[in-house]
Amino acid sequence: MLRQYFIVLAPVIGLAINVASQIISFRFFQHIGLLKSIFAAFIVGFFATAFLTLYNSLSDLTAILIVNLIIYSALGYCYFHFINLGETARRIRILREIYDSGSGLSMNEILERYNAKEITEKRLNRLINNKQITYKNGKYFIASPVMLAMARIMVFMKLVLLGKRSEFE
Amino acid sequence: MPKRQTKVLLQIFLITLSAGIFSFKPLFSLTGINIFAVLDVSEYLHISIFFISLLLAYMITYSAIEADSPSLVMVLNIAGTGPAGLDKVEFDRIINDDVLVKPRVHDLVIDKMVYLEGDRYRLTRKGVLLSRIFIIYRKILGAGKGG
C-alpha cells in the first residue's frame, strides 16, 4: 500500500530533489551559471523519479513510468519558469520594489527605481553578447535569425491563444 | 475576454478535473470500459497530480504569452526596420515606460496584488505573500533583485 503512494509521489519527490540540487549546485558551483544548474538539476530529478518509480512498481511498469516522467517534466518546467520569473519578470520586480519601500510607492517612485532604461539595457546587453543583435553607428540590427524566429513563434502562439499579435492591439 | 484570465482558466480546469473524477464510476458502470475502472484513492491522487501538473504548465505558459516580453518587443521592432536598422533615439522613443512598466503595474492591480491608496501603490496580502516567496527563494539562491 505504502509502495503505491511512493509511486504516485515519485514525481513530486523528484521535483524536490531537482530544487535541492539546483540550489546547491548554483550556490556552491557558481561558475556553472544559472541555466546549466537548472538543466543539471532537472536531469538529477528525472533519474530520481525514474528510479523511485521502477523500484516501487509491481505492475504496469512502462505505463506508470511514462506517466510519472510526464508529471515530473511538467513540474520541472514549472520550476524553470518560477526561477525565470524571479530572474526576469517585471511584475515580480515591481512587487519587490513596493515591498522594500515599506509604505508603498507612487508611479514616479516606481519608475525612479525600475524603468524602461534599466529593462532595455540589461536585455540589449544580453542580446548583443549572444550575437542576436548588433549595434553599429547608432543603430540596432538583427544579427541572428534565432531570436527573431523565437519572437515570431511567440507572436504565432499569441494569435492562436489570445487572437491578437500583441497585448497593445 | 475576462479581466483575470488566469483565474478563470484555473476555475475551468479544476471544474473539469472534479467532473472527470466524479464521472469515472458512473461511466464504468454504464460502459464497462476498463479505462474508467479506477480502483482506489492512490489512483485518483495519481490522476489528479497528472492533471494538475499539466494544468500548471499550461497556466504558466499562458501567463508568459499574455504579456509582451521586452526582448520580443525589442527584436520585433528592430526586425521591422529591415536592413536600415533601428535608430537608438527611435528605439528609446518606442520602447518606454508606457510599454514596459506601466502595463505591468496595472496587471498587479487587476490581479489584486497591489491597490492604489491616494497616489501610492501598496501591496495586498496576496502581493506581500508572493513578494516574500520570491525574496526568500532568491536569498536562498544567493541571487540579486532580478528583473
List keywords for this structure.
heterodimer; A: about 170 residues; mainly alpha; two-stranded antiparallel ribbon; 3 strands; B: about 150 residues; about 70% helix
Polypeptide structure, described:
In chain A, helix 1 (2-28) packs parallel to helix 3 and helix 2 (34-56) packs antiparallel against helix 3 (61-88). In chain A, strands 2-3 form a two-stranded antiparallel ribbon. Chain A has 7 helices and 3 strands. Helices cover 76% and strands 6% of the residues of chain A. Chain A has 169 residues and is mainly α. The longest helix of chain A is centred in the middle third of the chain and has 28 residues, at 61-88. By secondary structure, chain B is mostly helical. Chain B has a domain at 1-66. In chain B, 69% of the residues lie in helices and 7% in strands. Chain B has 7 helices and 3 strands, in the order αααβαααββα. Chain B has a two-stranded antiparallel sheet with strand order 2-3. In chain B, strand 2 (114-117) and strand 3 (120-123) form a beta hairpin. Chain B is elongated, with a radius of gyration of 23 Å. The two termini of chain B are 28 Å apart. The mean pLDDT of chain B is 90. At the A-B interface, helix 1, helix 3, helix 4, strand 1 and helix 5 of A face helix 2, helix 3, strand 1, helix 4 and helix 5 of B.
What is the radius of gyration of chain B? 23 Å
How would you describe the shape of chain B?
elongated
On the 0 to 100 scale, the average pLDDT of chain A is 92
Order of strands across the main sheet of chain B:
2-3
* Total strand segments of chain B: 3
Biggest sheet details of chain A:
2 strands, antiparallel
Q: Give me the strand/helix succession of chain A.
A: HHHHEHHEEH
End-to-end Cα distance of chain B:
28 Å
Our count of helices of chain B gives 7
